[in-house]
Amino acid sequence: MSQYQLYAVGAVLLFCIGLQGIIVCRHLLKKVMAANIMGGGAFLFLISIARRNTIETADPVPHAMVLTGIVIALSASVLALALTRQIHKTTGHTTLEDPTNNRVEK
Questions:
Q1: pLDDT digits over 3-60, tens only?
Q2: First CA to last CA across the chain, in angstroms?
Q3: In this structure, is residue 101 part of a structural domain?
Q4: pTM tops 0.85
Q5: Listed residue (26, 63, 48, 50) closest to 34, CA to CA
């Protein structure tokens, strides 16, 4: 297994861990963190496929996409955290729960 294939496998694992976090976790901050982990996996995968052939130089397009993606991921994270803060300010909860559910917790 080459170095680039190892990076690609690690990227897929990171993406799957982040996806599992988004599906399973109910806390909004954990969901934002899981989305960032998924983004890191996607960026690592793009970097791992940038240089597939050892004879030629690396393709600059995936590198440019990763740099652009980092900026977009940062702004999306800031927006998600601002929305999470507003949800907490409005409802007093930081988890995704049904507000009409009048079930008594034991």
A1: 888 999 999 999 999 999 999 999 999 999 999 999 999 999 998 888 766 667 777 8
A2: 52
A3: no
A4: no
A5: 26
Q: Which residues contact 106 (CB under 8 A, 6 or more apart)?
A: none
What value does the mean pLDDT take over residues 64-75?
A: 94
Share of residues in the chain with pLDDT > 90 (%): 60
Answer with the residue of higher pLDDT: 50 or 79: 79
Is residue 101 exposed (0-12), middle (13-18) or buried (19+ Cβ within 10 Å)? exposed
97 in any annotated domain: no
Cβ neighbour number for residue 38 with a 10 Å cutoff: 20
Distance between CA atoms of residues 104 and 106, nearest Å = 6
Q: Residue 13 falls within a domain, yes or no?
A: yes
The domain tally of the chain equals 1
Q: How far is C-alpha 61 from the geometric centre of its chain's CA atoms?
A: 21
User: Which 8-state DSSP code applies to residue 67?
Assistant: H
Domain that holds residue 45: 3-91
Residue 100 DSSP code? T
